[in-house]
Amino acid sequence: MPGTSLVVPVVLWGKHAPTHCISCIYLSKDLKTLATGCYDGQICLWQVDPDTLQMIPRCLLVGHTAPILCITRASMIQDNNYIVSSSEAGEMCTWDLIDGKCRETVKIQQVHTNMQAYHMCNCEDLRLFCNGYYPEIIVMDPFSLEILFMLSSKQNPDWISALHVLRPAKRKDDVVLALTTTGMVKVWTLTGAENRHQEPIYENESKQIRTLNAVCLQCCCYNQRTVLVVCTKYWQIYDAGDFSVLCSYLASRGERWMSGDFLAIDRIIMWSDAGKGYLYKLPANSIPDHADFHTPSTESDSPFLYCLLNQPDSKPLSCPPSMHFITTTRANKTNKSRYLIRGDSEGIVMVWSIPEISAAQLEEIQRQKLPQPVTMKATLTTSLTEAWAGMNPSPVGILDQLEKQECQSIKLTASIYLPLQSRLVVGREDGSIIIVPANQTVMLQLLHGNHQQFNGWPQHQILSGHGGRVNCLLYPHREHSRYDKNHLVSGGVDFAVCLWDLYGGTLLHRFCVHAGEITQLLVPPNNCSARIQKCICSVASDHSVTLLSLAERKCVCLASRHLFPVTTIKWRPNDDFMIIGCSDGTVYVWQMETGHLDRVLQGIAAEEVLYACEENEANNTSSEVGLANPAVHFFRGLRHRNLSAIRHATQRGLHQLQMLGAHTNNDDPHMQRNHNSPLSIQGLRTNPKDPESHILFFDIEALIIELLSEEYETMSPGSLEAAGLINASEYLKVAALTQSASPDAHKKIADFFGKMKNKAENMEMIIKEKDKHGILAKMKEGAESAIAKAESVLKHSGEHFKGHESTSKNSKPNTLGPLEASHGMEIAQLLLSLLHSWGLDSDLDRVCQVKLGLLRPMVPISYGVLSKANHMSLFLPTWHNTIPVDEEPLPNDLSLTNSIPPELIRQEQVTRIFTSRTHWELSTTLTTNHLLAIIALSHTLMSMSNATFVPEQERNRKLHRQSTRVNWSKTDEEHEEMFTQQQAQIKQGWSLLATLHCVLLPDKVVEHGAKNFKRPQVEMMVKRWQHHCVEVREAAQTLLLAELSRMGPKGRKQLVESWAQYLPQFTHIETINQQVNSPVQQTNGNANQQPHTPDPVDEEFEEEEEEQIRKPSSLSELKKKQSTAVIILGVIGAEFGQDITCSDNNKRRMSEDRRKSSVVEGFGPGNNNLARLTSMALSHLLLAPPSPKLPAHIPLRRAAIDLIGRGFTVWAPFLDISKVLIGLLELCSEADRLVPSMTYGLPLTPQADSCRTARHALTLIATARPAAFITTMAKEVARYNAIQQNAQTLNINMNNNVLHKAKPEILRGVELLIEKMQNEMSDLLVELMDIILHCLDPSQLKNKGLQDVFPAVCRFSQVSHCPATRRIAVGSHTGSLTLYELRQGKCVNIRAHSSAVTALAFSPDGKFLVSYASGDNRLSFWQTSTGMFGLGQSQTKNVKSYSTAPIADVARLNPMRLARLIWMNNRTVSLMLADGSETRFNV
């Protein structure tokens, strides 16, 4: 089960801004977004106001692990919502600027130093032209990040140092100009039809010029006749025709040129590494329009510096700043605006607006005696630190309460979260380690509530023992259960590794073996020797690695002769080797037990040894340390959530194979354990010298599972069944009928029920046991009432560090009171309080606070978005400053507060605006994830008994669940009544909460003044239509249907049109090639499916804005689009595609407001093209045999099954019904007999889940089209019987036949139909009986009547069973009688009446059969005569007929209750009619 499907990150940034040393800078053409990449690998997105250029940091994109070298735009649409970034490690990402989501990420061997986005001719979208540390020019697709083609060199191939792509005037093709490091100019001409698979593309011409190591090549865009070439020491202007030098200019002393561009035909702008900009006028011989163009340069006319852009008061820079020149044409202004922006190592961003200096002014400057250039200061400077400083009050951190107590701020340097205890352990700069209850400290920072008044709450524990900063923490038990769960290990700047007793708070041992600060702690893999298994591994800055035994309290192995920093540690447990790779590429092999250095390897040998380890690691237990970069530690932390394994390929090209680290950690045994914690807290540090910020990851699915398993644990199977969660007994009853009625089968069933009963009794025992503790707990409470009071107010987990040091003396460390709150409830409270849209509905807010116990946020929340491969975008707190506070009068509850400082009042106002509207204007992904989370959680809590976060009621609920009430008193009854009433109110509260977010939200948010509400994304909900967690699945379905019905017919039509092009086209056997205009090589018929990647993260995070559905840029994207299209069209077809009139029995599902007009074009009776294609695609998904591309039980197949059931009336005309039913029965018959019902919340195995969905679909199909279901099944049964007679000659094993395996399933369906739809069934009685007799085991009817075996069918008066002669008679609606001879197993048909048979009955001795038809008012007696001694042909003939009186008003009466026939004795029968009359007839 991937634990990543729905994760809500929330960030607590703390009061220090992250260090942001800018390595590259990019400003979008529309001046709305600035992106700065930094040396630590993060990208900061700034929201820019195009008019004033005010910049406010909006979010941080985390995902690269190396310095960002270049950023460029990815789409040509003016809104420009995508950028591509590339880092020094060869990682490239495409980011969605609005959502902050990573759309695509790849890692390639080549490292780019420069990317130019260019719109080639004959192409729909941009292409990226990249050059860097490799001898080609690579052209890439910005969305799929695939390499489209490469441009190679024939002459002197070398690294390309600069390139420029342009389209010459009046020509249709593109020209690439490039310059190699050795000074060869090369020219390629491209037509736009190039691709990977053709011959290498060589340059058209090349010429050697003198320039070496150019940094920039820029062709003048105004007339394309001159070229600017920049080297670090000088710049030159060349003639574009013959590449001859026109003029040249040296850099001033101590500065190096970084790059430049043309401002006009005769002017250029240059910038240097000192962060200054220079504007030059070119000499006459370099101006193409001038008469002197291309004449030799003269001394008197040289480039003239007329303007200098400089910021005098700036600090000296530690590394060259990154600068970027941009020309934009604003919509409302005619002239161009030009800007030079610079980002430096201090994180400061400066913008110069470039002055327009006319020719006249220029001459004036030139005429001065000493020509002095005009100096311009930056029009704007800002930085992250400045933005942070502008926050008042400053952003919250996770331990802010300690600052108030200690009156000083100490930086937090390391942290680790212990999910089982729900504790956060934080190491600080002064060497102290703080342990605090995680939920409570977060509540204190973010939520209003009584807890804000307490002093010194929540209680914390301090471990002090380090002298100086704590660098790293490790809780070994979390990595693997073989470690003691009381142990905590910490490493500090004082060269020591300390071992702590977590519960006692004592220092157990200090290991002082290293000679440098400790940088990393990890655990050896699980298959090491017993001695090494008790060790942990520590790495220090003196390049040493040790194995420290926690059991023996000594150092087992000290590996310390490495000359360079350690980058990789690998294990070969079988050979007892620890293999250590260093940053210079050497590899050291150490023996672990003895601590001997086995050998030192270099070069190829070293790499081979590391590879051998890679192959050897069945479950990758290596730990790549990557000490150079904190981002790596961060990812290592993420890995422990069992998000897909992000493993940083080692630093300096030790073995940079692209996908080396891309296997998931799922098979790693100790990864299985901890991924399911509903909350995990991860320290985020973008730079080693920064204090930590903290990210809270709420895993919705894990949270739901924790809540439900706690709920279900207390239920016995009986009560589970009563609650409708499983239907075991009903199923077993039916299953028993299909088995032979022999005693041993009875015994088996009795055993099973016995087991269930035992389980129930055990549960009671356990509950009693618990109660025993309950009394003890109360006694203990009296003793600690002081603490308990505070606790009861805040309903804390009973696992306070065992009463904190004060009371820990007298309580044993590991005894917990049974009444402790599960962390699940606390986490749910925290999460719902943070996500709920407070302020939209004041009544509901009151209910939430009073009845449900949610708390209001105090500050606007910084959310995050987790996307592909764990790349994240985290909203920065500074962004909340952009929320406009309306100058409206303060709400009542705020106006009383004269004593409160104004900034706090403003913060409160901002928070209220944030929760009610801004929250929903951030991004579609956030809206979707948050709505799904709220709806899924409130449904879960609604299904639990009395789930509320109000402390009193929560405690009552616990007691109520545990008390086994035997003798009731009056007060108990009153109490019970109160309890029931309370429970109803709570359930209603949760239901209102879900409705608000599911249905009413968009209108409410807009009412509250939101300008751009971000709608939930259809695609994201479609992906989760059959999510394996039922609550999430239902949330996604309700949300999607609400969104579709809100779109109205027009919106749905648009949606259908945009997706219909991706619908895979099926004939009945083979996939036709796609209609999509991209050359897609389709494989076999399953090609329309995405392969279910082993990496569970990928399938989740592929959504994108629906506004602009781009052509898919890669095959995998096309496949994803196809599967999405099938489900979207399936849902629309099933829910909106049928006319109300055509199906009476569908009324209950089709809500009243969907009238004829809501039928979507393409699914209606007139035009059914789409319905046909969709139904084919759906049935293909159901019936296609499992293959690697389309595995058996994936969510996609489940969705198809579900939709076939839901929209059966729409699909039926185009489906092969018998194939579909057989396919569904196949799924039902395979799984375990006891699959729970659809309301059971915990995830099942994929197989059981498919079975459950298929069972549900069968029920829907049977009730939607009962006649089709019964006739098809009867046909299949007939076919089965025909095969069975020849089974031996054909050599077929009938036990494998679906109809044999699925007997219980078919019987269940039949029983359901008789219950629900008697009238329809009475027309199909013969077929019905065929099916029933196929399913029942013949031995069942030997000694029992049909009435006992399958009572449902006996409510029809047209059916009679005679145990004496073992015959069954059925009267059909055509008037014929069908007699089943159970002995010989054959059946006879007799024409009896001219209208439908109303009733029939066998005489008690079985000699006569009487039948009555009200239509022709006849009653007939039939006798079956056998030949002599039972030999020969038996015949049934009519022995006597009577005419009966017609029944008045037949039409009005219920045909089921029209008449009954009852034999008085063997010769007399009585006909009782609906009007109460009774007539007797004799044979």
Question: What's the Cα radius of gyration?
Answer: 39 Å
Distance between the termini: 70 Å
Count every helix, treating DSSP H or I runs of 4 or more residues as helices.
Answer: 39
Shape: elongated
Structural class by sheet pairing and helices: alpha+beta
Biggest sheet descriptor: 9 strands, antiparallel
Strand portion: 15-25%
The number of distinct β-strands equals 63
Helix content range of the residues, please? 25-40%
Low-confidence spans: 618-674, 760-821, 1067-1108, 1139-1158
Strand order of the largest sheet: 2-3-4-5-52-51-1-50-49
Overall average residue pLDDT: 79
Offer a few descriptive terms:
39 helices; alpha+beta; nine-stranded antiparallel sheet; 1483 residues
Structure in words:
The protein has 1483 residues and is α+β, with helices and mostly antiparallel strands. The protein has 39 helices and 63 strands. The strands form 14 sheets. Strands 2-3-4-5-52-51-1-50-49 form a 9-stranded antiparallel β-sheet. Strands 10-11-12-13-17 form a 5-stranded mixed β-sheet, with no helix packed on it. The longest helix has 41 residues. It is elongated, with a radius of gyration of 39 Å. About 12% of the residues have low confidence.
